[in-house]
Amino acid sequence: MAKILVVDDAEFLRVRLTKMLSTDGYEVFQAENGAKAVTTYKEIHPDVVLMDVTMPEMDGLTALKEIVSFDSKARVIMLTALGQESVVLEAVKSGARDFIVKPFEHERVSKAITKLLA
User: Fold this and answer.
1) Is the pTM of this model over 0.70?
2) Using CA atoms, how far apart are residues 52 and 34, in angstroms rounded to an integer?
3) Which CATH number is correct for 3-117, 3.40.50.1820, 3.20.20.60, 3.30.465.10, 3.40.50.2300?
4) Residue 77 to residues 58, 61, 114: CA-CA distances in angstroms?
5) Helix (H) or strand (E) holding 77
6) Domain positions in the chain
7) Which residues contact residue 32 at a Cβ distance below 8 angstroms, ignoring those fewer than 6 apart?
8) For residue 55, how many other CB atoms are within 10 A of its CB?
9) Cα(116)–Cα(43) distance, rounded to whole angstroms?
10) Most Cβ neighbours (<10 Å): which of 10, 85, 86, 95?
11) Do the beta carbons of residue 2 and residue 117 sit within 8 Å?
């Protein structure tokens, strides 16, 4: 069973993604900010990370860079709001494998994860 780490400061979004991914058969872990994401990543070594860009304490781009410096093979999908194209470009240059624009559909999330796990 693949492990997925969901990182977002919005609890409702973490819960929504956790339910969605659990239904798809994944083991899901949560973190509420980038700092917690880095710590959790090092503890559980998830197969895929879904990470918001804008968060308090440590943003998603900083966390992405720390995770990739720790594990160059990390598979991170960034979650972004509309209008954050420049941030998406920086994320891809920093090692993100994909990005999903909020609000998202279950099918888009499932396809992105399946593609990375293939």
Assistant:
1) yes
2) 9
3) 3.40.50.2300
4) 17, 11, 12
5) strand 76-80
6) 3-117
7) 7, 8, 9, 11, 14, 55
8) 23
9) 21
10) 95
11) yes
